[in-house]
Write a structure and sequence with these properties.
This protein is mainly beta and about 750 residues long. It has 3 domains: about 1-115, Immunoglobulins (Immunoglobulin-like), CATH 2.60.40; about 120-235, Beta Complex (Ferric Hydroxamate Uptake Protein, Chain A, domain 1), CATH 2.170.130; about 235-760, Maltoporin, Chain A. It contains 5 helices and 46 strands. The chain starts with a helix and ends with a strand.
């Protein structure tokens, strides 16, 4: 593997002789806001000749840009950002010249058109690129949640093909994939359970996200070790010019954030603390039992070391605990006669720490990134003082990435080493894994390139990912391919996208899928004598700009799975880890329509979107074929927002057809027949006799949320007030049904929320 890596790297180094590099010029610098002195992330910096785009880029979280591979000559440099006046300047570059320039943009009252250099860097519900959505903070803010700030989890739930088990549980199923087949990263470090127990919240709030790349399938060669989806979150670096922060108070989740320079212009910090208050406040507010406690703490330091080097350190700590059967039915006088005493309490924690070093060469078109970090996750089931099940996962990651910007193409190579330790404790009867510890070493190496054909109308991204388990002497070669085509040119209305790839995974999460409300997973490695899970993805999509203010997208996908590990539907009454092999398929399509900044009634501005998704997921074992618990056939999401001055109103609608579940066919009494057992005296254990797996369907799920918000800006200060309600019509959406006690637990009832936030910039 090392030989492969170094041979590829050496080849790339040799294809560009030093004499050719000497002919190239380079310009780098920063772009800031004149009014606040803050960096302007996402600013377009481009070079033109005769009004033809020659080279372009976008600034990062520090407002930093670099343009290299500039041929000697005279160009017009254009710096533009929506809402700011353009900067245009004629510049002449000599061979081998290095220019350092910084630009300050002046805000203007009317918004300007924004030059788009690279389509995949845009955000928005209709800018899906063959399974990839690049989510920016503005899109997160677009989807309100109880509280005041936006959250990435709420936005992801509006993405077609993403299925959530309920309003709580923190589990996402992506285009037919199971929970354990997803992977999330924060600044390159894995976060194994990033979503909170109330599913609209995650460890990624709006204030901390710089950008998030969400692959629902067909991900590029740099990603591996999972077979369904990838979520790559990049945290903000913090303000390097001024002290800034925010304080938000709300029953669901209150927060405090602070950021600022440690060394002005060079070193910054950002820190955040968030904590839920619903467990303490909601009984006194609406008489509704809400036994949920969750929160997170985040910190990051980023430093620019000279003109070519930067380093950052990121830390995250999160915790969740709650009773998934603990919510009463409604707030309108319907109460239960006694407290729920069943063991439905769950908890999980994340502990993440790591750092990233980045080198941008001044002389050769090379960017090198090295990331190292540790991640720990613990998942528990049962009361806090008497845990029934516990699963712990600890990993160490070291990864490198080199991007070489050749003439007409970008080439990247990289490698990741991950060592993961697993610990498992199960005290139920008849489990194959009562208590175990295991360890797995994984090495991933890849090479990929991005280049253009047909005069820039076709962008192609081929690559190969090599996945290795060195201790088992197992290797898999995974080809990947992504492509975008603009039939009428980059400025035309249409864009066609496609992706294809093969993926493997050597760990899995065991769960008792007989249980509707199950959110406990026992993480284990694939047995050495078993094959790793394999998947193949194919995605084809079409984006079109119908009007300047309206976009549409249509995308279809197909995923095939082999060597899946799924539970045997055992008649034993306790959690079982007995598994069997299965094959699977998932296919579907989604249609999206997005409207932005459309004049509306009473001199207001209207925006919103509507999306529909159809999917079908099917598993096949040696004994039977069935649709697993996340097979949601129909899904509809809509969001409407109107803004007039400082006041805005948002209405959100969600609909999902019923999920499959396994029905009960009756009861009997079961005895553990061992020597000395007297069946005439022993009471035995009540046991459910299950029907065919997943032969039933739950009722459909639907919910309407409404929010009213006022945002007031006074100089450096911004005050935001938000009031609204979850499940406005108090619909009884089923979440959990206990087949032993016939006790029904619904999703969240009608819940009002108010919040207040103060920001200083």
């Amino acid at each position: 593997m090392n030989r492969f890596y170094y041979v590829v790297l050496l080849t790339f180094m040799l294809v560009l002789p030093e004499s050719a590099l000497a002919q190239q010029a380079l310009i780098r610098g920063f772009v800031t806001d004149a009014s606040s002195e803050q960096p302007l992330q996402g600013t377009t910096v481009a070079l033109f000749q005769s009004d033809r785009l020659v080279l372009g880029t976008a600034t990062d979280g520090d407002g930093y840009f670099i343009l290299n591979r500039i041929r000697p000559g005279t160009y017009e440099l254009r710096v533009s950002f929506i809402g700011f006046s353009d900067v245009r300047e004629n510049m002449t570059f000599s061979a081998g010249e290095l220019i350092e320039r910084s630009f300050v943009l002046l805000p203007k009252t009317a918004e300007i058109g924004e030059l788009v250099v690279e389509a995949e860097k845009e955000g928005g519900v209709t800018t899906v690129i063959a399974g990839l959505e690049s989510v920016v903070p503005a899109e997160i803010r677009r989807v309100p949640v109880p509280g005041v700030s936006g959250d990435l989890a709420a936005y992801l739930q509006t993405v077609p093909g993403v299925v959530v088990q309920g309003d709580r549980g923190g589990q996402l199923f992506v285009r037919g994939g199971a929970v354990d087949q997803n992977m999330a990263f924060l600044d390159g470090i894995p976060v194994y359970m990033p979503f909170h127990i109330l599913s609209v919240f995650s460890a990624f709030p709006e204030e901390l996200v710089d950008r998030a790349d969400f692959y629902t399938g067909g991900f590029s060669a740099q990603y591996g070790t999972r077979v369904s989806s990838m979520l790559d979150v990049h945290a903000r670096n913090g303000n390097k010019q001024n002290l800034a922060g925010s304080l938000a108070l709300a029953p669901f989740l209150s927060s405090a954030t602070i950021e600022g320079p440690l060394v002005k212009g060079r070193v910054s910090m950002i820190a955040s603390v968030r904590q839920s208050l619903i467990e303490e406040l909601f009984p006194s507010l609406v008489g509704q039992k809400m036994p949920y406690r969750f929160g997170d703490r985040f910190g990051k330091i980023h430093a620019l070391l000279g003109s070519s080097h930067s380093i950052s350190f990121t830390a995250l700590d999160s915790e969740d605990r709650g009773d998934i059967a603990g919510t009463k039915k409604s707030v309108f006088g319907e109460t239960e006669a006694s407290e729920i005493t069943d063991s439905t309490e769950v908890a999980w924690t994340n502990r993440v720490f790591g750092g990233t070093y980045t080198y941008r060469s001044n002389r050769i078109p090379l960017v090198a990134v090295v990331t190292a970090g540790s991640s720990q996750m613990t998942n528990e089931f049962g009361p806090e003082d008497d845990v029934e099940r516990r699963s712990t996962l600890e990993s160490i990651d070291v990864k490198t990435r080199l991007t070489y910007q050749l003439k007409g193409a970008d080439v990247s190579v990289g490698s990741t080493y991950r060592n993961t330790k697993f610990s498992l404790l199960l005290d139920d009867l008849f489990t194959e894994l009562t208590s175990t510890k295991d360890e797995l070493q994984e090495i991933s190496s890849y090479a990929e390139s991005t280049f253009e054909l047909a005069g820039g109308n076709v962008s192609v991204n081929p690559g190969v990912h090599v996945y290795t388990l060195p201790e088992r002497s197992q290797n898999w070669i995974e080809p990947r391919f992504r492509m975008s085509y603009w039939p009428m040119g980059r400025t035309g209305r249409h864009q066609i996208n496609a992706s294809w790839g093969i993926f493997h995974q050597a760990i899995s999460g065991l769960s008792d899928e007989r249980d509707l409300g199950n959110i406990f997973y026992a993480w284990v490695t694939t047995p050495e004598n078993a094959k790793a899970t394999e998947a193949q993805h194919a995605i084809l999509g079409w984006n079109v700009k119908l009007f300047p203010w309206m976009n549409a997208a249509l995308e279809g996908y197909y995923k095939s799975y082999d060597n899946l590990s799924v539970p045997i539907f055992s008649p034993f009454p306790k959690f079982t880890t007995t598994q069997q092999a299965a094959k699977g398929t998932a296919f579907g399509f989604d249609a999206r329509l997005n409207v932005e900044n459309r004049p509306f009634w009473f001199e207001s501005v209207f925006d919103g979107y509507v999306s529909y998704a159809y999917s079908k997921v099917e598993y096949e074992t040696a004994s039977y074929t069935y649709n697993p618990s996340h097979d949601r056939r129909h899904q509809l999401n809509a969001l409407l927002h109107a803004q007039k001055g400082e006041v805005g109103m948002t209405v959100q609608f969600q609909y999902g057809s019923g999920l499959p579940f396994t029905q009960s066919g009756g009861f009997d009494v079961w005895y553990l027949l061992t020597p000395g057992v007297d069946v005439t005296k022993e009471a035995g254990i009540d046991r459910i006799l299950y029907s065919n797996p997943y032969s039933g369907r739950q009722p459909a799920y639907s919910r309407v949320d409404v929010w009213l918000e006022r945002r007031v800006e006074k100089g450096r200060y911004v005050v935001t007030m938000r009031a609204g309600a979850v499940n406005l019509f108090n619909r009884n959406n089923l979440f959990y049904y206990d087949l032993f006690t016939f006790k029904r637990v619904d999703q969240l009832p009608f819940l009002p929320s108010v919040g207040f936030k103060v920001e200083f910039r």
